[in-house]
Amino acid sequence: MPYASVYPLVSARSLARPFTYEVGEEIGKGAVLSVQFGAAKRRGVVVGLEDAPPDGVDAISAGKLLDELPPALVDLALWTADYYGSTPARALSLVAPPKPARRGERREPSRDYALAGEAEPAELTGPQQEALARIDAAAEAGGGHFLLHGATGSGKTEVYLQACAATIARGSGAIVLVPRDRVARLRMQLAESGLPKGGGVGYDIFDKSDTMGGMATMANVDSIDVRPGGTLEFSPGGFHLMCMKPMLKPGDKVSVTLHFAGGTQVKSDFAVRGANGR
Questions:
Q1: pLDDT score, position 102
Q2: Are strands 253-259 and 265-271 parallel, antiparallel or unpaired?
Q3: Which residues of the chain are in CATH 3.40.1440.60 domains?
Q4: Neighbour count for residue 209 (Cβ, 10 Å)
Q5: Side-chain-side CA neighbours of residue 159 (13 Å)
Q6: CA 269 from chain center: how many Å?
Q7: 128-174 pLDDT, tens per residue?
Q8: Which are the contacts of 219, defined by CB distance < 8 A and separation ≥ 6?
Q9: Each residue's pLDDT tens digit, 164-208
Q10: What pLDDT is attached to residue 140?
């Protein structure tokens, strides 16, 4: 019987690690399971499979399958947690929200609210065809990174949707990131417009102080107040420095000059650590 590494969806940072459970052969990465966690039942997301439990671990059987996520969406959530200094469970909770129990016949929101997507255009414009051809060629060659530039209404969304459809047709998945207040509407529009199944809709991370589903995002600050004789700690999940260029990796050291309001400058060497503090 296979074993699964599962993140129980709890908010405590002290429990920010996977736990091992016995699972059935049909369970794969992205499965949302009901698992026994302490004295309570919790939802947990499978992030990987193992042939045997870790040494000294007596794994128990997981409960029933509640839902399934695209594996790529699981990877995105784990990356988000690492990059933003949150916990994997909090990030996974965003892409695996609980589904309330329903009574009676299930309603179809996309039909009730009639938010049908726009019809596919008869022909793409020249710039759209060129952009789609470059994305398609990159996908055939193993992947790439692109940023579509254009004014509102220039047709970028159609390129996104056709690129997603082509990617899904190859047997891969697609993830569409949108502002959280438009997630529900986009889900319905994509469903009505006939986008092939296999993608996932996630959340955009805004650069401002906010809380989304219990997960805190970051805010840029221009200065920090420190009382005379006081101290300020830089740490993952708290105040920290983010360096985009040059690219740094855990274990590196970087020299930083701190500027104080009175004109004093203090040069200090900082250790580069991952979001988990190591």
A1: 62
A2: antiparallel
A3: 3-95
A4: 11
A5: 21
A6: 32
A7: 999 999 998 988 888 788 888 887 778 888 888 888 888 888 877 77
A8: 207, 208, 209
A9: 888 888 877 777 766 555 555 555 555 555 554 444 444 333 333
A10: 84
Q: What is the per-residue DSSP string for 136-168? A: HHHHHTT---------TTSSHHHHHHHHHHHHH
Measured distance CA(180)–CA(49) in Å, rounded: 31
The tokens for 84 are 């933003």
58: DSSP letter: -
Give the pair of three-digit tokens for residue 111. Answer: 């039909």
How far does CA 229 lie from the centroid of its chain? 40
Q: Measured between alpha carbons, how far is residue 177 from residues 11, 75, 136, 174 in Å?
A: 23, 14, 20, 10
Domain range 3-95, its CATH number among 3.30.450.40, 3.40.50.300, 3.40.1440.60, 3.20.20.70: 3.40.1440.60
The answer to whether 218 and 84 have CB atoms below 8 angstroms apart is yes
**Assign residue 138 a region: left if phi > 0, alpha if psi is -120 to 50, beta otherwise?**
alpha
pTM: 0.45
pLDDT in tens, 213-234: 443 445 556 667 777 777 777 7
Query: How many residues are recorded in the chain?
Result: 278
The pLDDT tens digits of the residues spanning 235-270 come to 665 666 666 555 667 788 878 887 777 778 888 887
